[in-house]
Specification:
Strand 2, helix 3 and strand 3 form a beta-alpha-beta unit. About 40% of the residues lie in helices and about 15% in strands. It is globular. The protein contains ten helices and seven strands. With about 270 residues, the protein is an alpha/beta fold.
Length: about 270
């Protein structure tokens, strides 16, 4: 194994990726399998997870995948998912809390029920699943190679932007804050906790705006770097945080947004310079 392989390798690690059948979750799962990890892929649609796992296993990648149904939207669903993971491994090196839902509506008609659904999955489900998997994360954690938790936040949880997705944006801000809380509380357990804060990527959730190349190009024009994100952008960040290269990083909210969170639109005194 050469220096770069040793620094960024995830070979031999076991990971769980929730919501791993589509979008960013699938990008994460693919990166880990291609990096040599055993990846458990779970979402509400078990058949889709099994299909993705089979495709990854037939791709010639050095790792392997196992797909099955899992729902983090209810306490019962989280319990069943934890049992399914425990039946497949006795230690978990990586947990990627990617499962999420959104809801969009104008301010005047945004329903109260949209808050309960979105917060249950994006925040409460993330919290409960992470808590209940701590024994498996503890079993994998060492001083030199901590266990890793990656939460999926969003640029919409960083900047004051809703675009009608009020509960989604608020939930992602909560994910960012919970990530820092967990990073603080889990440090003594040798578990790092970080979050991705992606900008626009092609996914099922954003298909209305990025589902075709033409639409993606239009959205990309609103990004400072001039494009939407690619699978390699997710893969690089995933392998960094889950490998030896990222072993000393915890509590970070990593902006994978093409510069959106750093973009300044305020004028103030600029017109007088």
């Amino acid at each position: 194994m050469n220096y770069l392989e040793e620094l960024f390798s995830v070979a031999g690690k076991t990971a769980l990726v929730t919501g791993g059948a589509t979008g960013i979750g699938r990008m994460v799962a693919s990166a880990l399998v291609n990096g040599g990890a055993k990846v458990l892929i779970a979402s509400r649609k078990g058949e889709d997870c099994r299909a993705v796992a089979e495709a990854l296993n037939q791709s010639g990648a050095p790792g392997q995948a196992d797909g099955f149904a899992g729902d983090v939207g209810t306490p019962e669903g989280v319990g069943a998912l934890v049992d399914a993971v425990r039946s497949r491994c006795d230690r978990l090196h990586v947990l990627v809390n990617n499962a999420g839902v959104s809801w969009g509506a104008p301010l005047e008609t945004f329903p109260h029920s949209a808050w309960e659904k979105v917060m249950n999955v994006n925040v409460a489900g993330l919290f409960t699943l992470t808590r209940d998997l701590l024994p498996l994360l503890d079993a994998a954690a060492t001083d030199d190679d901590p266990a890793r938790v990656i939460n999926l936040g969003s640029v919409m949880g960083t900047v004051p932007l809703a675009d009608g997705a009020y509960s989604y944006s608020a939930s992602k801000a909560a994910v960012h804050h919970l990530t820092r809380i967990f990073a603080n509380e889990f440090a003594a357990r040798r578990i790092t906790v970080n979050a991705f804060a992606p900008g626009p990527f092609q996914s099922k959730m954003t298909a209305f705006a990025t589902g075709t190349d033409d639409k993606a190009d239009i959205v990309g024009k609103g990004v400072p770097l001039g494009r939407i994100g690619s699978p390699d952008d997710i893969a690089g960040a995933t392998l960094y945080l889950c490998s030896r290269a990222g072993a000393y990083v915890s509590g970070a909210i990593l902006p994978l947004d093409g510069g959106m969170s750093a973009h300044d639109t305020n004028r103030l005194f600029k017109d007088f310079q």
